[in-house]
Amino acid sequence: ELEKFKFVLDYKIKELKRQIEPRENEIADMRRQINEVDGELETFHKSNAELDLMIGSLRKQLDSMQRTIMRHRSRLSGQQSLLKTFQSELHEVVQSIQNPAELRQGVSELYKRHVHSNMSREEADSDIAREYARQKEYLERSIDALKRKLAKDSAMHRADNLRVMQENMSLIHEINDLRRQQRSMKQAITKDESGEVIEGDITRALRGPDRWASAAGGFGGA
């Protein structure tokens, strides 16, 4: 009986092992998945820490830039106010343009009020050179634009002149034809008055000098 009982127990143990083995495999798979998720979470934590550091650095930079912008705005506002004051004072000084003494005194006072540091000659020469270069570049661009416009206008004028010339030549030819017709008509009328031409010669004269000449030649031959 003990052997039989042992056999039954062994059989049940084997059955349980067969049932437990898939579960153990599932548990092993789940453990691997958990380990992978833990690794991903650790990576995310590191990334979040780095992002927090980056965000902190960017916030500091943003704060610094905002302070710089505020300083520049304040400086710009002061310069604009100073410029308006200078323009107003300059306008008052210009009112004395007809009085050299008052004008000189006003300019001197403006200089004392607004010029607080002497500009070196090198700086002045540098400013003059930059302004000269800027004006030169502007003039060169203007000259190039005018040259292109002149070339375009010249081409258009040449085309217009050629067209007008052709029209004039055509008109001249037409005028010459009309003059020849007029002379032929006068000759026809003169001959008609002297009784040397028939009535149809005037009609032929209106057709042109060539036709009138051929008609006159035929009439003379007859």
Automatic annotation (TrEMBL):
InterPro entries: CFA-57. It comes from the Eukaryota. This is Uncharacterized protein. It comes from Bicosoecida sp. CB-2014.
